[in-house]
Amino acid sequence: MIQAADLPETIPVFPLPGALLLPRARLPLHIFEPRYLAMVEDALKSRTRLIGMICPRDTPNGEKRLNAIGCAGRITGFSETEDGRYMITLSGISRFRVKEEVQGFTPYRRCAVDWAPFSRDLGLAETDQGFDRSEFLQILGRYFASQKLSSDWDSLKEAEPELLVNAISMLCPFSPEDKQALLEAPSLTTRRETLVTLIEFALRGGSAEDLIQ
Questions:
Q1: What class is the 4-122 domain?
Q2: pLDDT at residue 44 in the model
Q3: For 174, which of 81, 107, 178, 187 could close a Cys bridge (C-beta 3.0–4.6 Å)?
Q4: pTM metric for this prediction
Q5: DSSP string across 15-81
C-alpha cells in the first residue's frame, strides 16, 4: 500500500477526454500511441509505477489545457500484444492538484502535483451514511434501460457502496465535464448525490450543457 511519503512530486500524466479514475477503483487502458508507450515503459521502471489520469479541456484559442485535478493510478496489470500495443490496468491511488506542467525531454507530459488536499484518498474505503441501495438501483435500472446498457445486477446488489458508486461513475457515458464533477466531489456522499442528479437529468432528456447552465 502506497503511503503519503511515497508519492512523488512529479508524475507523468495521460490526458484522456472522458476517462475517469477514482481512488481504489480500476481502469483498464489500451495504449498504442508511441509517446504513451514510452510513458508506460518509464512508469514501469519507477518505484511507484504511477500515471496521472487527467481530462484536458478546450480553450477559446483551441489550446489543450489540463484540468486542475486528476487522479493517479498504479500500474497493477500489464500485457503486450504481438504488434507492440500495451494493455494495462491502473488501480486508483489518490487524486492530485496540478501545480505546474514540467518541461523536459520526454515525449509525454509531466506535472508537478500537490497530493495534500486529497490525503483522505490513501485511507480505507469511504462510507455513505445516506446510501439507499434499493432506491439507487431502481433509478440506475431505469437509466441503463434508457441507454440500452447491461450489467451484472447480482454483483451490484452485493457491492460495497464506494465500489458501486465509483464504478457507475466511471462506466456511465457522461460528458467530460460531468466526469470531472464526479472526480472532484469532496466525499462519497457528494459523489453519489452528483451521480444521481446526472442520471435523473439524463432520464428527463436533458443535456450536460443544459445542466451546467
A1: mainly beta
A2: 97
A3: 178
A4: 0.90
A5: E-TT----TT-EEEEEE-SHHHHHHHHHHHHSSS-EEEEE-EEE-TT--EEEPSEEEEEEEEEEEE-
